[in-house]
Amino acid sequence: MPSARNKILEPVTVSDFLAWEGDGSGRKFQLVDGELRAMSPAHITHGRIQSKLDRLIGNWLEKQGGPCEIVTEPAVATRVRANINLRVPDLGVTCTPDAVEQKTLPDPIGLIEILSPGNASKTWENVWSYTTIPSVREILIVHSTRRFAELLRRDADGNWPAEPEEVGPDGTLRLDSIAFTCPLPAIYAQTHLA
Hints:
The chain has helices at residues 14-19, 44-64, 120-130; strands spanning 28-32, 35-39, 69-72, 76-77, 86-87, 91-94, 108-115, 138-143, 149-153, 165-167, 172-175, 180-183. The chain is an alpha+beta fold. The protein has a single domain (42-188), classed as tt1808, chain A (Alpha-Beta Complex). A six-stranded mixed β-sheet has the order 3-6-7-8-9-10, with helices on both faces. Strands 1-2 form a two-stranded antiparallel sheet. The chain has a two-stranded antiparallel sheet with strand order 4-5. The N and C termini lie far apart (45 Å).
């Protein structure tokens, strides 16, 4: 059980974390460098943006009829220090079929984080860890306090850009990995930022 471990001598492993039944509080956790990190409940605006993106992208993928699916708050295994890291983005896209007893998102191609004021540094820490996952082609960071998004996209050689591509308040969001586009304002519908 992770809570009984001595954090200095023995970090929590991914296998222990996946077998853990939680601390009884109902809180969600992710595993960061062998330590449990509680995840704060999302603000309503954050949740609405997450739900809207889930619907827009999910409907698009379903209409395409392919194998790709979007998953809410999936566990993803990083490549670096994989035995002690299991991060949880807001949304993830995979084109690998679902399997029995699957606990981590297989071969994610796109990961999405909603950036809130209180979690910016932890969110960016997750984003940089996602760049170590070989299958990930795009990472989208959507702001929850203004209509603005940042997108990291691997180039043809598999390299990440030095700086994210910015999508302004009235710009168009484009995810090449799934051929998805939408006006950025559409993901802020039914929020105070609409």
